[in-house]
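#random but structural
TW: two for the price of one
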Amino acid sequence: MNHVVLLGDSIFDNARYVPGGPSVIEHVRRCLPGGWRAALLARDGAGIAELPRQLDQIPADATHLIVSVGGNDALDHSGLLLHEPAGSFAEVLARLADIREQFRRDYRAVLERVLGLGKPTAVCTVYDAIPGLDPVEATGLCLFNDVILREAFRAGLPVIDLRLVCTDAADYSRASPIEPSVVGGGKIARAISRLVTGYDFPAEGSRVFS
């Protein structure tokens, strides 16, 4: 029996933001073929530092791992992007380079731990069509998505590019615009289902799903 496990943050753990509607994990369970199961280990508010704790909870019968993390790490740096003074453009770039390098180290370390489990794995980018997202913050997300894509391609992993999945305002929750709505959650779940049922791990190498 196939068993899909969702790891990461509130992109997957969005139940509190869709009151009365199906959450991402519920959508995934509905989208998967008969006989498949899905489990949620992702937690609202989790950043890259919390992934090792989730990895320790992965059930032995898990067959596919889907990782969506990075949005909260980007959010942690939004104050610097929007409010910190800088003496020159070069200083700004230097700070951004430091942020990117730290996330790269952390993301690579976690991804190596995930791959060490020997289970088919896919990762997600961080979406950027959030209603009201400041253009500076949207630009800052590019740093994190660049890391995610480079590390995924380096490891030969498939990617669900959430920037291509959640493209409309209706894809985001009214309760909190940075979270998926029922509509957005359904799109994410269908992308997950297409990946795990239609991708040949690991023979196909990196491939982008949307």
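TW: number two ↓
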Amino acid sequence: MNKKIFKAIKVAEKVHSNVTDKLEKPYMAHVIDVSKRVSNLGGNHEIVALLHDALEDAPPNIYNEVKSEIKEFGSEIFNAVIAMTKTDKDDYFEDYLPRVKENKIATEVKIADASHNLSKTYLLPVSDQNKFRNKYTKALIYFNQDPMKCEKRILFENNQWIEM
């Protein structure tokens, strides 16, 4: 494994190791899945995928440390992670997605992220399914992707997300 990718996993684990997603699955499984989805695009894409939620989710007591560690990967990776970091002030469709679209790596990682999230909406409580399905479908359309082609049903097994 590439040293930079190993380092990115360590940074992601610092933020996400004790965190679960909406389905109560380890959040690191999501981060790893997104990185696998972009691995064919190169190491920088994998690293951004591993770190795509790190700043957004970093607790205040380690935020500056995590930001500093991400800067060490260089400006291309740092700028892509910054583009993918949604703030409380950002409207998802008006502010966040246009910023992501300005960065090529962030765009590819966001497509992988939205595809993964869309793929597991069927596992959510029925009351939440439409809300999240609509959000990720709209995001994929925004990036000129066919949501039907992006969505592959997945399930959680052996501590990882796998396609069915």
